[in-house]
């Protein structure tokens, strides 16, 4: 009950914030909502099932390009319906794409799955850049809808905020239900789970499709918020890596972890180190190393395992194959 | 004729790719660590030989020896103090993230130290080439490929014939059994990593003459090494050679007949297909972990 009240309080404060903060911080929070939702979506496959994808940015790009092309092709005028339609199109394209590749690539495990996803994201990105009708190299416009008299950053603050809440609710439902337990069983020991009658193939595929569809939804929305984008602005390796890093910092396989992780990391890089662009890579690298070495289970792991345990993390258990 | 010329270009490129990948293959095969710092080793080797060439006039091909020695030590220390720590405290997958973090840091320092500009090493013979029956080969490329093959052969002999190589192979097969037979396993892990780093940096010294490089190209060399290893098979110089040559052929034929902008897509497509069909590589034995 206390948790529900606290959550409601956070939501009310978040809804009121854009009126109080200067535009820069509204932008930072918008970025935070977007990234936290991405990390949560990655977490469904990477955290619950233990299948680390290094190429989830493929779905951001597919979602954005699918939405832009279908909207451009149907020549719909900008309206709330058009925007929702575009986002649904992006979501569906990613879901279908993920469903098609799910069976062959989910036979691979561990680092091989991670790398094959990286490879797929590179292939899709290169193709969108080089196949002319996709227009990845010259860029593509997508006309979003904006309520009259509202600043774009405030509008997208609420849009991404709603998407984050949606993603968190979906994750929580999966985690609480039979589906989530099946995914956890796969993470802990896939062969044993299969032997005990857990339908691992279907569960993995379903988890992968859900994760991809949510990322596609976010990608299409991101495309709307940009208005004009090229291959390089939606297929970004750093998107893929950030999803993993945020989950690691916060605590992989939890709901609050990815959100906390992206909050901590974005605060560090955008606000504290906003001036030191030269050292951005350095700081990112350093944070990753320190986090992996000092708290393999992230912030959530530290909180649940007080006093600090030094060995035998769930990350280690999940990844040992 | 065009076909033959493309094939020759591919073979020459492939020889250098093999050398660049063999260190990655060794580390992956023996330690199970996916070393994302690999590209940094390659690029740092190229920068080191560039400095040696500009400041002291040392020929880049000769520079491979001091560069490799320095990076052997770097690799040894890096493995013993950082990677070992990551593996023991978290997991093998987490060690991958640590190597990635180190790569980011090193890339940042390379950018600050050498600027993000693209560099080349140009000794006086770099523009001479010769023709044979209408086919064209640059002299530097020919030397580079010969040096690569010699170094690969050396590594193969080292692994197959010496006691040092035998210890490395024993540890790769079964660390516990090797330890029981009196092998100092952590030390051998460090040595193996050092050897991998040494070969990567030597490859960088050779590559600096053949191809332009910048701090940002480290990602390319890491991915390249991974593709080579997946194509050829993990842990053996012959696998790296086969994978490298195949990759060289794929990229030169794609560039010639489909279009230069499709080479990366094609390389990754082959990687994905290869992982799906035969994840142990053409020459490899099945890795239990892949599926």
Structural summary, described in words:
The complex is a heterodimer of chains A (321) and B (291). Chain A has 321 residues and is mainly alpha-helical. Chain A has a domain at 24-240. Helices cover 76% and strands 1% of the residues of chain A. Chain A is built from 14 helices and 2 strands, in the order H-H-H-H-H-E-H-H-H-E-H-H-H-H-H-H. Chain A has a two-stranded antiparallel ribbon with strand order 1-2. In chain A, helix 2 packs parallel to helix 6 (152-176). Chain A is globular. Mean pLDDT of chain A is 85; it is low at 307-321. With 291 residues, chain B is an all-alpha fold. Chain B is 75% helix and 3% strand. Chain B has a two-stranded antiparallel ribbon with strand order 1-2. In chain B, strand 1 and strand 2 (135-138) form a beta hairpin. In chain B, helix 5 (139-161) packs antiparallel against helix 8 (185-210) and helix 10 (237-257) crosses helix 11. The longest helix of chain B is centred in the first third of the chain and has 30 residues, at 2-31. Chain B is globular, with a radius of gyration of 19 Å. The model of chain B is unreliable at 286-291 (pLDDT under 50). Classes of the chains: A mainly alpha (321), B mainly alpha (291).
In a few lines, what is going on in this structure?
By secondary structure, chain A is mostly helical.
